[in-house]
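User: I would dearly like some help making sense of a protein record. I have put the entry right below:
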Amino acid sequence: MIIDSLKNAPKYSSVHPLFAKAFEYIATTDLATMQPGTYEIQGDELKAIVSDKEGKSREESLEKFECHRKHIDIQVCISGVEEIGWKPIEKCDTDKGGYNDEKDVQFWDEKPDMYFNLTDNQFVILFPEDVHAPMIGVGEGNIKKMVIKVKIS
């Protein structure tokens, strides 16, 4: 897991071959005016999903305490304050029904080891070993965010 501000995003371009293109897309897009939906960036290798909705409680977020095998998530907070729960997969023992290959998701019946907040123009990179519970609301108002799904080759 990597947490940082968008101004430092170029430092991470060498971590994965598609990160440079993903961060270029973020830098050249007017995030504030983007409407919720899915945006193709580069075929099935890179796509952006924008949401703008009310945050969940910590308890609600644990219904989808998740990780992915085929994608890395770059999650960008556009506005609001988002809390995310995190736990390394090697400490997870109890899954909820196994891995769904079609949706590239596995849910866990676990509790996070830690929580952290993202605010405007901050991002987190979540790798397959990062089990996460996103969209926890902190304060009032909606959370607007973008998740870039980076396909692992």
Observations:
- The radius of gyration is 15 Å.
- The mean pLDDT is 96.
- The longest strand covers residues 142-151.
- The chain has one domain: 2-151.
